[in-house]
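assembly run, all chains below
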Amino acid sequence: MVERSTMVSVKDLRLCVGEFCLESVSLSIERGEYFILLGPTGCGKTLMVESICGLNMPDAGSIYIDGRDVTNTDPATRRIGYVPQDYALLPFKTVEQNIAFGLQARKMGRKQIRESLDAVCEMLEIGHLRRRFPSHLSGGERQRVALGRALAIEPDVLVLDEPLSALDEGTCRELMGRLKNLHDHLNTTFIHICHRLEEAFTLGDTLGLMRGGRIEQIGPTGRLIAEPRNLFVARFLQLRNLTRGEIRETAEGNVFFINDVPLCSTEKPAGAAYCIIPVPELSIAEHDPGDEDGYVVLSDRIAENSNGYHEPGLRFRGRIDLTIPGIFPPDKWPPGKKVYIRFQRSGLHILAENEHH
Amino acid sequence: MARDKKNVLRHRTRTAGRRPLFDFGAIGILILYAGFIALLLAAAMLYLGAEMRETGESYFTEIFSSADIRHAAWLTLWTSLLSSVLAVGFAVPGAYALSRTSIPGRSILDMLVDTPIILPNIVVGVVLLVFFRTAIGQGVQSLGMQFVYAPAGIVLAQFICVSPYAVRTVKSALDSVDTRLEDVSRTLGWSQGQVFLRVTLPMIRNGIVAGGVIAWALGMGLYGPMMVFAGTTRQKTEVLPTSVYLELSVGRIGTALAITMIMVFFALTALFLFKKFAGGRSVW
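ok done. output:
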């Protein structure tokens, strides 16, 4: 039985297209959630959402939407608004005809259609484009029209396949804000495919990370960042607080070391490993802060202090490999200066190098 | 459409490093070929003009006043129109099946559809004649419709010879439609059939018109299968191409050429319509 609060539930989905297969994919998306499906190109994200939309028939497994088993039902009855990557606006219809297209399928009266059109156009600020054909729209405008067409049918779930990938930085940021706003104001569940982390971290309540037709990890954005399941997840999310070390077998069991400094015990097997140091728990000092129970102090020289606009922070590449994000005045924290990094032992998350799950 | 115009413009944009010589070479070959065709038409017209001056006879008046030729022209027109409509009626679902479905043995079906293109037209006539001598063929005729040496046979022969061209043209149009448009329309609430009518058909409209025009033009000029299968009976199964043959066989070159000129006029009209509607996106 699917719980009432679950909007989309996929169970053991298997689907092969040519050589590529989605292997036993399961996920669950809550009502009203902003779900981000992340992953490298060709990992099966689009195939996955197309299956949810009903555009690909799974070989095995089941899909539920709002508690209904829709595995074998027509896409027309699924109440999903779909915005594909290339927007797929009908070139022979004007903007308003495109938006009204889904409403006509619902046999709505002219007055109702006009009211819905007005509402959507106002919401997305596309009123001035109503009589234009898609070929006369910019990328951002097309994206808004496609969004309007999907939202006009008041879907339970809105599926966006890389909606911002073809747009310039400015338009992208503007639309990101718009999407966040829409999600805050509508009671709709969003499924958004992307490969840009900024997009994922800004918008997503929950992230699902895929690789090679499988889901690597699903969870709230914060948890994926703090506790990536494996090195692939940590590297894909470009976590800068990922520090290399090793796990050694000791009399007290396996212990994670950085530069011969024992950090914490772990159940992971001995060998090369990494640890995630939670940045909020981390402090940096010019003088040795001294030992304290439950804390670790590591010393190293600053390799780089990047205080520009792009990813500012202190970079260490010597005894530890770590970036501490934030703005550090370069006169106080120049490269080459020896500093002390202090963090809590208990907050460390250890990842073995050859670990997959 | 605006998008087409945009594409055409992009196509014509001069790019850096273009070799004028290369372009001139290609243009030269094109002019040579088109010039040769024009020369043939001009030669026919000049010959006809000279003949008319020499004999003092107007072949055009003669053929327009001839009941036989008028009948043949009318028969050519309506049979080719009907067969092109039938060909398009078959081409749309046929091309859809070839373009959008994954039936086993599709390549064999595809090949069979194309067979009449490869066969000499006269062989189609022979095969049809043989078929209507078999029990099945005779059974079909006994149902009340006469095909052998009858106008229905003309339509059938034209239909078989021109359908593959219609299928190719419509399929090419279908292949160029982004299936995403159909997918999205289905999520918007339309059934597969409704999507076909409301999205796919408007998208391939030009292809369908182009397929129809090419089928009509080709059907009008068919000669081989008519001689074998439909016969050349005057005022019954004589079509314009067979008229040309019949006139030539009795040495009336002038009349044959005048009929040819009328057919050239029809063909050019068809080609003009075709180019207008195909919008440069078709295979032909």
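The first helix of chain A runs from residue 45 to 53.

The first strand of chain A starts at residue 6 and ends at 17.

not gonna interpret more than that til we talk
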